[in-house]
Amino acid sequence: MLKDHILCHYGEIALKGGNRNFFERQLIENIKKQLEAFCPESFEYVKRMSGGILIKLTEKGAANVALTRDALMHTFGIANFSFAISVKQDTETLKEVCWDIVKHTKAVNFKTFRVTTQRSNKNFPLTSEEINREVGGYIYDQLKGEKAVSMKNPDLECKIFILNEFALVSLEKIQGFGGMPVGTGNKAMAMLSGGFDSPVAAWQILKRGVQLRYAHFHSSPYTSKASIEKVITLSQELKKFGSSTRLYLIPFASVQQEIMMKTPERFRVILYRRMMMRIAEALAKKEKCLALITGDSIGQVASQTLENILAVSEAATLPIFRPLIGLDKEEIMQKAKVIGTYDISIQPHDDCCTRLMPKKPETRAKLWEVLEAEKALNIPKLISETLEKTELIK
Question: What is the pLDDT of residue 202?
Fold first, then answer.
């Protein structure tokens, strides 16, 4: 029997009160876009139902379970979802179908099971508990007592959904990433490098429903094009989660050279970062973004001590969000594996021209000293010249 429907359940959207309809509508639109992107012509409709979202699959969608599953795994806002078989609202039919899928389940070694019913059609003659007893008892008899019924943490759970027009039967519940639907949290500009941290930071903000634009600083022609190619690939990977692929490629070598020639060496990294913040903020305001996103983690590198983070942040007027601030490198790399960016980020590249980096960077900068050193730079000119050379890739 083909699994011709999918039931999607959400988590915190249910707590949105009067705004819940807005979040549900956005989630439905995102599900449609994701299904079309991963498996075109895979669904007949996506609509609201009591407590969740119902998807009716086409024959193509039902036959391509892996693709439709992947689409929903990349859709923020879905807490869990279940592939289900539609059947008549008839107790005998439910018994036969439930037994059929239980006996053919791959979990052949299960020792305990239960039947759980959710009934939105209150005109159905049996209550949820009565359905559980009828169907569960039938399965128990067919198993000849070899498996036990367990109401708490069973090895196998057969779920029945009594809707208005038909019933659905499902054995599996697939965990999604949860979060909020992308597009419900306005826009932000994420600073994206070719490393592990910034893609994971971007993912964390996407999960909160924020649509992203991306800014990548490169030192071409002093470095190879590898970092640019990696960042394009990373942005494409993040697009699978419903992100935009508006990526700004920002040539930064001339700014680095100016800072190297005119300021003390120990402040070089901090001044690089301050200029990055200013340029990214200019692009963010152009895109009507409300925040900047970085992959900073306290103490991971010289620019990420609290003193240096303070000195860098002062250059921007928009809020700067650092979703990885309390994570260590191992935690970040593990998350990169989960979201699909690890294999891209691990590839070698020249992230920034080594020749333009200081030998002994300042780790405990005083803001007043940084501001004093920065007086040697023509900041408005550096920003405008860099923006003129910036390339937008869609």
Answer: 98
Residue with tokens 């059929």: 100
Reported as a single tens digit per residue, the pLDDT across 70-79 is 999 999 999 9
The pTM of this model reads 0.92
- Show the domain range for 133: 5-175
Of residues 15, 341, 23, 68, the one with CA closest to residue 182: 23
The strand pair at 174-175 and 80-87 is best described as antiparallel
Whether 134 and 42 map to the same domain: the answer is yes
Provide the sign of the torsion angle of the four alpha carbons 75, 79, 80, 81, taken in this order.
negative
List, in sequence order, every residue forming a beta bridge with 391; answer none if it has no partner.
249
Is 204 found in the same domain as 152? no
Among 153, 175, 197, the domain-final residue is 175
Q: Which amino acid is it at 104?
A: H
Kindly state whether residues 195 and 167 are assigned to the same domain: no
Q: Are 200 and 174 in contact (CB under 8 A)?
A: no
Q: Is 388 helix (H, G, I), strand (E, B) or coil?
A: helix
Domain membership flag for residue 181: no
d(CA 75, CA 88): 30
Task: Please say whether the beta carbons of 183 and 76 come within 8 A.
Answer: no
Pick the last residue of a domain from 175, 200, 227.
Answer: 175
Which pLDDT tens digit goes with each residue over 104-129? 886 567 889 999 999 988 889 999 99
